[in-house]
Amino acid sequence: MLSNYLKLQYTLLSRHIRATGLPVWLAFLLLFGLCYFAYYALVQYPLFGCYALLLGNFQALFLLTEKNRNDFLKNTYSKRDFHKIRIVENGLLTLPSFVILFLHSQWHYALLLDTLAVVFAFLTFGAFVKSIPTPFVKKPFEFIIGFRRSYLLLLVLYLLAGIGFYVANSNLVLFCVVCIALTCVFYYQLPEPIFYLWNHHHTPTVFLMRKFKRGILQCLLLVLPLLFLYVVIFPSDLFNACIVLGGILLLLPFAITLKYVAYPREINFPEGFALALCFSFYPLILALLPFYYIKAINNLKNYL
């Protein structure tokens, strides 16, 4: 039963990879390269690298607890098989990070990751359509959906930032702010239905500018409280706060632009590669943003 389920998931994953235009073998090669990059980053930044790995796996494990998905598995398999499937898929999901932490002798973080994988196998979270309010308006919708899919991660990041303030660790606070901003970037990963765009009477330029404005304001709603406290508590690090804030003001519009370059399909390898280039050498965004902005405008002319 378990082997059949895993084969089915591998088939679905392979089809999704091929839909991006990548061969399956190349996608797994890129995954190996990403793991090597994470290993190298952990050498350079051991503390924040461990935090990043744990937070990334935390969010991925949280997404697998989605209620509709787990209800389907419960109705399809026995209770014993259901828990076995959930534990195995959580273990496979966290295995690369566990190996990286193990190779760096980060035993306590590796043990914590294993514990999270087992605990999340027994948890189910609903979609919370009405029970969890958000500080965001309905337009655009990305932050409402994204907030409800990542509220636990945001809560953990705020708690870590609180610890950073308590122990006077300014780098930890900035790390949490950057992680919150990156979380907001991933809110724009999925495209909306085409008829959402048909309801707009704006030109592509006005449409994108309104998206930029609303996205930046909603992202700042999450990060500005932390940045304000950061400047108050660590006034000598004002320049670092300005650098992070400036990065947010460029990165979020770039993510929105990539979304509408790829529209109506999802963001695939070409757009993801451009985003990865900016992560590796951030000043490159100053050159890539105008280029992709023009491409997004030309693409939106087909729908607006």
TrEMBL record:
Keywords: Membrane, Transmembrane, Transmembrane helix. The chain crosses the membrane at residues 21-39, 45-64, 109-129, 150-166, 172-190, 215-232, 238-261, 273-294. It comes from Sphingobacterium paramultivorum. The keyword Ribonucleoprotein does not apply. This is ABC transporter permease.
